[in-house]
User: Fold this.
Amino acid sequence: MMILENNKKIISFINDKNHNRTEQYSNFLKKYCLVLHTKNLPIILDNEHLSNYLSLNISILNKISTNTHKYYRQFSIPKRRGGARKITAPYPLLINIQKWILDNILNFISTHDYVYSYKKNKSIVDNAKHHIGNPILFKFDIKNFFGSIHIINVKKMFYSFGYSNHISQMLADLCCLDDFLPQGACTSPMISNIILYDFDNKMDRYVTDNYNGKYSRYADDITISGQYLNYGDLLQITKKYLNEYTLFLNESKTKRLNKKRSKIVTGLLVKETTVRVTKKYRHQFRRESFLFFERYKNENLYEELIKNPFLTEKLIGKATFILNIEPQNIKIKEIKDRLIKIHKEIMSD
Assistant:
């Protein structure tokens, strides 16, 4: 609401004929402002104007945009299948800037309907459900996803919204590190979805028109399903469309699943009529819960849990996840109720 009110004030100021501007420049400004206002985006006239939105001194903003590498820290987190994933996370000052860009610009831009990642009220469950009932399924993985999206494409994206060349460059600089999207910036997920809108649209059309199949994407995971699919054709067309963005497939992760094989989509088992949690995940959760209850009964775990309630919260979260997909699972519900009871006892002390 505040952004729109500011936009109206700016447009009113520009429409005021008492200012010493040529008619040509005034018309240019009017058009520029109306394009952004119509899209509910904040009108940004120059760097100083942007710094006012961010409540930052202009010299600080310029320093950050030209030296973004000084405002990040790096660390690693373990991958599920071994190895480590490098995360590059911004420091608080840059986090606040990127959050403003996300909340006031990126979140107002549409992404493809069949992209389920990084979207409110969408999840891995919706992504998996999209492919229910299809006997053949192909899975493709985009290699080094964020790290392959170049600042040139990010700048083009902001420019396509209606921002000037200079402001588009400034916004792109604030969202990128070493000319690519960083893994830990809050803006990277939404930027990737927006930039790949045309890719998602072309893939969806191709799969629908040629195979009457279904296409979806969750971050770097592409899923295609149908009654009949030609693997070689879909592999080549996916490569072709990705190459337009200088993106490539990680072919070692490509999977072809036919009628006889279990179809796992974003970690969930896709059946003929429904989606289930995998047996492996369900059994692992029950084993973790059993060991937790045994420790709680036989060891002095109470003091440890008071200091670190995350142990119970983590298990409750897993139970909630399973029950969201399998609400009739009585055993899991019983485990969750026991965990909640223990957690309440801990938190009440």
